[in-house]
Amino acid sequence: MAIKYTITKKKFKDGDGNQQEKFYAVAHSTDMVETDEVARLIQEATSLNEADVYAALKALS
């Protein structure tokens, strides 16, 4: 699956006070994922159970 992204320019001053520009890739999501699906995927990849992951995600929202 391809990842869609855009290039974003960020301006900042370096340690000497000189203006610098850097370019960063910013990924864009095109799909919606339900909380239950995220909890299941995290549960499959870790030692946590789905209920614990779901509770943590709900607490963060």
Overall tally of domains: 1
How is the quaternary structure best described? single chain
Strand line-up across the major sheet: 1-2
Tally of contiguous helical segments? 2
Number of strands: 2
Could you say which structural class the secondary elements and strand pairing correspond to? alpha+beta
Order of helices and strands: EEHH
Which whole number gives the mean pLDDT? 89
**Radius of gyration from CA coordinates:** 19 Å
Name the shape in a single word: elongated
Helix fraction bin: 25-40%
Amino- and carboxy-terminal Cα gap: 28 Å
Features:
61 residues; alpha+beta; two-stranded antiparallel ribbon; 2 helices; 36% helix
Written description of the protein model:
- With 61 residues, the protein is of the alpha+beta class.
- The protein has one domain (4-60).
- 36% of the residues lie in helices and 33% in strands.
- It is built from 2 helices and 2 strands, in the order ββαα.
- It has a two-stranded antiparallel sheet with strand order 1-2.
- Helix 1 crosses helix 2 (50-60).
- The longest helix has 11 residues, at 35-45.
- The model has no long low-confidence stretch (mean pLDDT 89).
